[in-house]
Amino acid sequence: MEVGSVIRCLRRFGTNFSSTAAGFHTSSPLLLSLADKISDDMKAAMKTRDANRLKPLRAIRARFVNKMKETGADSLSDNDATAVLRSLAKQYSESIEMYEQAKRPDLVASEQAELKIVEIYLPKVADEATTQKWVDEVLAEIGGKANVGRAMGLLMKSRKGAVDPKVAKKLIEDRLQEISRT
User: Fold this and answer.
1) Are residues 91 and 135 in the same domain?
2) pLDDT tens digits, residue range 26-60?
3) Do 133 and 171 share a domain, yes or no?
4) What angle do CA 139, 146, 158 make, to 5 degrees?
5) Residue-level pLDDT at 33
């Protein structure tokens, strides 16, 4: 049986498969890994000639490829992809701050647009109230030996990816100051 006839048969039953050089992969958004989703979105941006969307997607894809080369893996797990995206988002944020200090609004706008596209693919982080609850739990667990570094380490280890580190650090520092005053 030919590959094409298999694909037509599968499409008849509602499964949308497309052949690639690596074999078959489903084009259902529910089953794609984060790296595959970004690759598919990059291809769509190329087809529609959306340069504003294509530039950051290419940067993301390049970072993914570099990470795969570093680890020697054939594919990238969603956790690794998320770590790469967080790193890239941090880089864009730092660039925005530097361009603002240099009074370059044109570059600030460009970096902000690219950061928004990166943030689309990042998992949502907890709000401040939820983070405060988690901070209180970690500080209660540590007890009297609490310091910012130790609390941040435990919090980030237990809630990896769900907490914004800047917000968490600020909340921990504020809570430790409250505790030291009493």
Assistant:
1) no
2) 444 456 788 889 999 999 999 999 999 999 999 99
3) yes
4) 50
5) 84
Number of folded domains in the chain? 2
Interacting residues of 125 by C-beta distance below 8 A, sequence separation 6+ = 161, 162, 163, 164, 167
Picking from 121, 146, 166, the residue at the C-terminal end of a domain is 121
Integer Cα distance of 35 and 64 in angstroms: 7
Question: What is the Cα–Cα distance from 32 to 29, expressed in whole angstroms?
Answer: 5
CB atoms within 10 A of CB 92: 22
Tell me the per-residue pLDDT of 140-156, one tens digit each, with 9 for 90 and over.
888 767 788 888 888 88
Asked whether residue 102 falls in the same domain as residue 132, the answer is no
Q: Are residues 51 and 95 in the same domain?
A: yes
At 26 the three-state DSSP class reads strand
From the CB of residue 155, how many other CB atoms can be counted at a distance below 10 Å? 24
Q: Which residue has the tokens 């894809």?
A: 61
* Domain hosting residue 42, numbered range: 34-121
User: From the CB of residue 142, how many other CB atoms can be counted at a distance below 10 Å?
Assistant: 14
Mean pLDDT for the stretch of residues 169-179: 86
CA distance 27 to 41: 11
What is the reported pTM?
Answer: 0.64
